[in-house]
Specification:
Rossmann fold, 2 domains, alpha/beta, five-stranded parallel sheet, elongated
């Protein structure tokens, strides 16, 4: 495995940041954000990358742009009300992360442009017609979680040589997880592994799932990328440590919070790129015509301190390929 894989969308219109252009004098643009947590909190500090992206493009909050933000803080039941509120406030576009929030906003409005910062399967889930030409009010960036499932299992097996039985933690409310679970089961069978899916809709379900793993003792755990799991990453890292089941995640914020490892897209990079989509749309571009950008960089992050606590010796070859080793 190369430490960086390149699967970019050929011919994409947004493969490099656009130069900042001066906004018309006196013109103040109004955009909405529907996120998991505000950038002033530990959980939401990744949003600073989006704000920096706007600043790099010449937008200054309070001068030429107003940002109306609503944060659901791990409670997906609040999404519909917040989405409707942003529509009532007449924002010019709405920036949305992750799978579930994008689908909720889409149900609320089919006219206001939606910029998604990371959806794992926008075509397969029916959000857009194609990556090259979305054909709807939705555009932005994808994360390719489903396509990376096999690679995550390969890395996990390399880290856990005794791996024979594994569990997959998935969220049945996530619009792409059924397919991703099927992909994980197929990839596991190809590697000669036994696999069992464990459902978790919220933090309480996660606790129940980890309790089940403590008694069933799988050799490892694959956690599918999900906004609920991501928001509760610190608590999930505690559950992982207590169960002593090594786990692979999709986002680097999980090993940063104390879990074992991750392989996936740089969320901060996606958020910076999302600012470019905002800029293009505010300058008149139609989201239906803006290609959805696929990631071009994937990060392997390993928490060596957690590995030692789990009694794992990570092979030197794997450590050498890691983009970050947390000690």
């Amino acid at each position: 495995m190369d430490r960086r894989a390149f699967l970019g969308l050929a011919g994409g219109l947004l493969t490099a940041p656009l130069a900042a252009e001066a906004q018309p004098a006196g013109k103040v643009r109004r955009i909405g954000i529907l996120g998991a947590a505000p950038p002033t909190t530990h959980e939401g500090r990744v949003w600073e990358a989006f704000h920096q992206g706007l600043r790099d493009l010449g937008y200054v909050e309070g001068q030429n742009i107003v940002i109306v933000a609503r944060y659901y803080e791990g409670n997906l039941e609040r999404l519909a009300d917040f989405a409707a509120e942003l529509v009532r406030l007449k924002v010019e576009l709405i920036v949305v992360p992750a799978n579930q929030p994008v689908h909720v906003v889409r149900r609320v409005t089919t006219t206001i442009p939606i910029v998604m910062t990371g959806h794992s399967d926008p075509v397969g889930s029916g959000l857009v017609a194609s990556l090259a030409r979305p054909g709807t009010n939705i555009t932005g960036l994808s994360t390719l979680h489903a396509e990376l499932t096999a690679k995550r299992l390969e890395i996990l097996r390399e880290a856990v040589p005794r791996l024979a039985r594994m569990a997959v933690l998935w969220n049945p409310t996530n619009q792409t997880h059924s397919r991703e679970l099927s992909d994980a089961e197929a990839a596991a069978r190809a590697l000669g592994l036994q696999v069992k899916g464990l459902k978790a809709r919220d933090l309480d379900d996660c606790s129940t799932a980890f309790s089940a793993m403590t008694s069933e003792r799988p050799d490892a755990l694959l956690v599918l990328g999900d906004t609920t799991f991501w928001f509760h990453r610190a608590r999930i890292a505690e559950l992982e440590a207590r169960s002593r089941v090594p786990a692979m995640f999709a986002q680097r914020e999980h090993p940063e919070a104390g879990s074992l490892m991750s392989y996936g897209v740089d969320i901060r990079g996606n958020l910076r790129r999302a600012a470019t989509y905002v800029d293009r749309i505010l300058k008149g571009a139609n989201p239906a015509d803006l290609p959805i950008e696929q990631p071009t960089k994937f990060e392997l992050v390993i928490n060596l301190k957690t590995a030692k606590a789990l009694g794992l010796t990570i092979p030197p070859s794997l450590l050498q390929r890691a983009d970050q080793v947390i000690e």
